[in-house]
Amino acid sequence: MLPFRRPLVAAALVSALGLALHSLSGFAEPLVRSEAGPVKVAVIAQGLEIPWSLAFLPDGRMLVTERPGRMRVVSPSGELSAPLKNVPKVHAKGQGGLLDVVLSPRFADDRTIFFSYAEPTERGAHTAVARATLDLEGLSLGDVKVIFAQHDDPPGNNHWGSRLVFDRDGNLYVTLGDRFDYRDKAQDLGSHLGKIVRIRPDGSVPPDNPYVGKAGALPEIWSYGHRNVQGAALHPETGVLWVHEHGPQGGDEVNIVKPGRNYGWPVITHGREYGTGLKIGEGTERKDVEPSIHYWVPSIAPSGMAFYTGDAMPKWKGSLFVGALKIRLLARLALDGNRVTHEERLDLGKRIRDVRQGPDGKLYLLDESDGRILRLDPA
Strands (DSSP E) along 235-370, which ranges? Predict the structure, then answer.
């Protein structure tokens, strides 16, 4: 029997080795159906705790924030660095913590990053934005300076907003949530709650902001009537800011942000009160309120957003991608100018917190459910 056993054992070893190589080479990655064909979901890194934001460094590494208060560098092969030193203390409760991170438009020269977080105060906490120099060799932040903080610092742990986007002139948009229990402040131009602000990299106010010099209005405000914006990106052709925001029970919105405009919350919304399903505010439209270009009922709980301009998936070019927490998917919105013409849902089964296009022209996702960085590859 021995001559027969050896080939069987050898065959089993070859088969096992083949399966291992098959997995390592990525061919064992799960496939997701899409209208552009099957897509592989590659796991680039894992072992993160509630990852919130992803930024690509010029050398191909990634900077990732973890909501409990850590920031790490991740290599292209998925190795996690130790947490960076000198990250400020954060209010890591509920939805609060260390949130967005972006590179300076002049990062190659100034090595500066900007990040948002829930900053603890004596009364409670507020959304703050800091800038710092990034020391990649020492894995630390230097010259950390808070350049903006909400005036309002109520108690509570929800709705921090916190997406950061630089415009083409080098000014920084900051999205600010209504802090959940203080939604009426979203219509108050003397409050930072429920607003998008536009500041310079040093925190000063650009002179062409819409409320500069207007009595009773904070000059850094760019737009108001927002609930909790957790997705923001510049349109690749127009350079205009697009955002999406959480509705309550339904009423998530995609909005094109115009200076000085009112986006309705909590007066105009498609959402309903939690629990009771009762109407909120006056209705779903009003002449002086900027209408959304797309909304979801029921809610998908959107987070993260990116326009796709890459070549890896040609049929996706020109689409807007939105992550979803509650429904655990990635939504692709086909666009015709400023109109959404079609929505496709890629069922990933994970809470997608952030969506970014990488330098390789592929989409990268932060999987909050399992603490991973994912990449979508053409199958």
Answer: 241-245, 252-256, 294-296, 302-307, 320-324, 329-336, 339-347, 352-357, 363-367
Report the b/e string of 304-343 with b at 16+ CB within 10 A.
Answer: bbbbbebebbeebeebbbbbbbebbbbbbbbbeeeebeee
d(CA 88, CA 80): 20
Q: Which two tokens stand for residue 26?
A: 């990525």
Q: Is residue 84 part of a domain?
A: yes
The reply to whether 22 falls in a domain is: no
Catalytic residue among 159, 226, 246, 270: 159
Residue 235 among the catalytic residues: no
In the three-class reduction of DSSP (H, G, I as helix; E, B as strand; rest coil), residue 22 is classed as helix
Mapping DSSP onto H, E and C, the string for 209-226 reads: CCCCCCCCCCCCEEEECC
Average pLDDT for residues 234-240, to the nearest whole number?
A: 98
Decide if 53 contacts 366 (C-beta within 8 A): yes
Structure tokens at 160: 């921090």
Is 89 contained in some domain?
A: yes
What is the distance between the alpha carbons of residues 187 and 175, in angstroms, rounded to a whole number? 15
Q: Is residue 276 part of a domain?
A: yes
Average pLDDT, the chain: 93
How large is the average pLDDT for residues 62-74? 98
Over range 250-257, report the average pLDDT.
98
pLDDT higher than threshold 50 for residue 119: yes
pLDDT band at 29 (very low <50, low <70, confident <90, very high): confident
Cα distance from N-terminal residue to C-terminal residue, the chain: 44
- Residue 22: pLDDT over 50: no
Task: Please give the tally of structural domains in the chain.
Answer: 1
- Print the domain residue range for 178: 30-378
DSSP element (H, E) containing 65: strand 62-66
Other Cβ atoms within 10 Å of 112 Cβ, number:
17
Cis peptide before 298 (omega within 30 of 0): yes
Band (pLDDT 50/70/90 cuts) for residue 23 is very low
Question: Which CATH number do you get for residue 190?
Answer: 2.120.10.30
Q: Is 207 left (phi over 0), alpha (psi -120 to 50) or beta?
A: alpha
